[in-house]
Amino acid sequence: MSLDKTWYTEEWAGQGSAISLKIKDKVHDEQSPYQRIEIYETETFGTLMTLDGLVMVTDRDNFMYHEMMSHPALFTHPDPKRVLVIGGGDCGTLHEVLKHPSVELAEQVELDERVTRVAEKFFPELCESNNDSRARLHFADGIKWVADAKPGSYDVIIVDSTDPVGPAAGLFSETFYKNCLKALRPNGVVVGQSESPLFHADLIRSVQKSFKAAGFRDVATLFFPQCTYPSGWWSATMACKQGSVAQFRAQDSAAKGFATRYYNHEIHAAALARPEFLR
Q1: Which residues are catalytically annotated?
Q2: Residue 66 annotated as binding site
């Protein structure tokens, strides 16, 4: 059975599979200097943003990705004060970072300003911390930003990137990770999205190898569900300049009043468990 034009379908390249979402309307379509940005209203997943035809964020499931991209890294650091987000144009990760009271500065460096401006209109709940006094939005090349950063500028670097193709490919390189190491303070932590463990195991191995080659002391991958991304299962790979990835402030992450919808200290610990086929 083939689906008609009332469905948005993304084919997952080379995997013989796809995802389809029933749409009510397309409400925005523009070509930015970098990519095509489209916004749909769907029947069951709320608002959907796609970039160059690939799902980026939906109302229904974005919280899992944004929470797992931010909280494990920030709770692994003993006292995160200065945080850098590379990419993350929808601002959901920035919003989660700013839930941490220890954070004094959160800088977001996104290449395409139009992604953020469109998100501000169609995903206002993700952007509600953009005017926080601790937030700084920069529209620039994240690779160059990190390369130019003064040594010891940040406690945590979060690489909330698109797939490792085109301009984003450099965000998965040993050279970039070496620059992250330099930009981090002694207890620094870096985390980057690392695609599907089911579809992209070779990439995860490559990312781990590059982190270690760059000089990070300890590296581990976290696994979590993300139903609108390829395979419905996603990952983020985290590395520590000093200390162990397995050691995190579980008591702080379990504290009352820290509002999340997916992340908690038990999820954090479980996400570090490796499936047998990835050992």
Answers
A1: 160
A2: yes
